[in-house]
Amino acid sequence: MKFIVLLLLSGLSFTATANELKIQLQCKGHYYNFPKKIIEMPATALLSLDEKNITVTNIIFFGSSVDGISYDVTKKTDKVISFRHPTESRIYGILERYTGELDMYQMQSETMPLQMFKGVCETAKRRF
């Protein structure tokens, strides 16, 4: 019995440690919507990054305000991290690693965006 409890406790501590490896970024910028008239509005976002996914929260359409949307990392270099929506290939983003610039797009066609977010991200700071 003691072995099982110890095993469970060690598993819980491993999970907590694994969750701490995620990087949290706060982003500020603007959301643009292009269907008939360009609409521009200030927007913020929270990104959670791990090795395989980027979860986007709080950008209109690109991430829900509660749980966020998990995007698949498609490319990682020294300069950029590219990611794409798991089911909609016309929704994707690019995060510049040195400047923190974030661009997210939903494309109407190959050359015409339907909506986008452009902003700058920095390491998230705890408020309390």
- Radius of gyration, rounded? 18 Å
Envelope shape: globular
Structural class: mainly beta
Q: Quote the average pLDDT.
A: 80
Pick out the low-confidence regions. 1-19
What portion of residues belong to β-strands?
over 45%
Strand order of the largest sheet: 1-2-3-4-5-6-7-8
The percentage helix is 10-25%
Order of helices and strands: HEEEEEEEE
**E-strand count:** 8
Q: Compute the separation of the termini in Å.
A: 39 Å
Number of domains: 1
Biggest β-sheet, characterized? 8 strands, antiparallel, barrel
> What is the tally of helical segments?
1
Question: Can you describe this structure?
Answer:
The chain has one domain (23-123). An eight-stranded antiparallel beta barrel has the order 1-2-3-4-5-6-7-8. The chain is globular, with a radius of gyration of 18 Å. β7 and β8 (113-123) form a beta hairpin. 15% of the residues lie in helices and 50% in strands. With 128 residues, the chain is mainly β. It starts with a helix and ends in a 5-residue tail after the last strand. The protein contains one helix and eight strands.
Show the helix and strand layout.
Blueprint: H1 2-20, E1 23-33, E2 39-49, E3 53-57, E4 69-76, E5 80-84, E6 91-96, E7 101-107, E8 113-123
Antiparallel strand pairs: 1-2, 1-8, 2-3, 3-4, 4-5, 5-6, 6-7, 7-8
